[in-house]
Each structure stands twice: as structure tokens, then as C-alpha cells.
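look at this fold:
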Amino acid sequence: MTSTAQAGPMTLAGMTDLRCRFGAAQQPFQPMLPAAKKALQETGKLTIVALGSSTTAGAGASESGRSYPAVLEAELKRRMPDTEIRVINKGIGGQSAYDMLMRMDSDVVDEKPTVLIWQTVVNDAIRDIGEEKLAKILRKGVKKARAADIDMVLMDLQWLPREDRYPKYDEYRAVLAKTADEMSVSVFPRYAMMKSWSKSKHFTAEELVGMDGLHMVDASYRCLAIRIADGIVGELTGAKPELVEPPNPTN
């Protein structure tokens, strides 16, 4: 497996994707994927379930093929051409962590993946369901995945241009982080990544969050997938992406 830097002349898409890696050194994603690594060695297969709410379903994307799970599957297939790869989208807009826990057997365990990316907590924070209640739900989900020998990645909440609309947003982010730490679960640092993108000159505001001020859009979904793929491929193959400053700021 070669890195981007070794893959020959940079394509236009590759040049565009470099901006997705702005701040990657400061917000690294280095997931622990022992089950996936073992399965890859034994079967040559990688199956990922993306469980979540509107971010996973692709709300705000111009078409289903631009959702982050769809882009992630395409990226992984491109970078790991000798591996049989499936990314199964189990996103349902508006769902809470409890809603997802209730369908984890049918939508996750029954699919027999080796990796679960669980994007959650946003709706719980908006509804303020209770921090201890949320922690219990997350712990149950982690235990369920672990019992099925599935590597879990918890996705941090998104950065929002007006998160002050949700007074306890940071507190709920802290619950996710604390639970992941206690349960030794990898976290995809979406909030920090998006915040660094917003402060850079490489994205317009409209490329990160849609007109509703909440949902992501095509460019940010693509970058989300690029950065997840970087971490997964790095852990499974040792290949490293180019971590360089992208050219030509957009704003």
C-alpha cells in the first residue's frame, strides 16, 4: 500500500482533498482496530457499519453518494484495492443514542462487521436527556459491540457556528469523551477537526454547515470521510497520507 505522496502525480481531487487534512497533526485519528486487523489478515475483508442519525444518513448532502459512509467506502476501496470492503449505512435522522442502542442487534451485530462507527449524542444534547442517562446508554452500546468482537469508534459531535443555541452542548460532548476514555474506545475528533477547518482559510462557511446551521454538506462530508479513511488505512496497513498545507485558500 502506498501513501498519497508515493502514488504518482497528484490528481485534482487529491489536491482538493489535501485541505481536508488541515490540522490533522493537531487532531490525530489513530483508531484501535484489533478485530478488523485480524479479519483483514484472515479473510481479506473489511466490513464497517456506520450507525448514526442525520450525519450518517447524509442529511444536507446533495445526493446519497455524497454521504460520508458512501465516500468512505469509495476511499477505502481506492486505497485498499485488494480488500473486499463494505460500508453499510445505518443512519436514521433524528434518532437518539437510545434509539440506536435499541436497533444495534439488528442493524449492527447481525451484519457481522468488524468495525462500528457510532455517530451519536447530538440529538441527546439538543433534547438534554440527562448526562448520566446518556453515559449509561453509551456504555451499554460499547459492551454490546465488544461482546460481538466489533471494534467501535465513537464519533464526536460536530462543530456548530451557533452551538450556544444548545446550552449544554459541551457537557454532552464531555460525556462522550469520558465514556470513551473509561471504556477504552477510539474517538473520531470531529468537533476539533471542523473547528480547525472553520478557522482556516481553506473552506467557506457554506462548505462546512448548511443553511440550517446544523447539518453538514457535501464538502464537509467528504472531508469527514477522508479523515476517517486516513485513520483506518493507517491502522490497518501502515500507509500514511500527505500532511501538507493545502494551496489556494478559498476565503
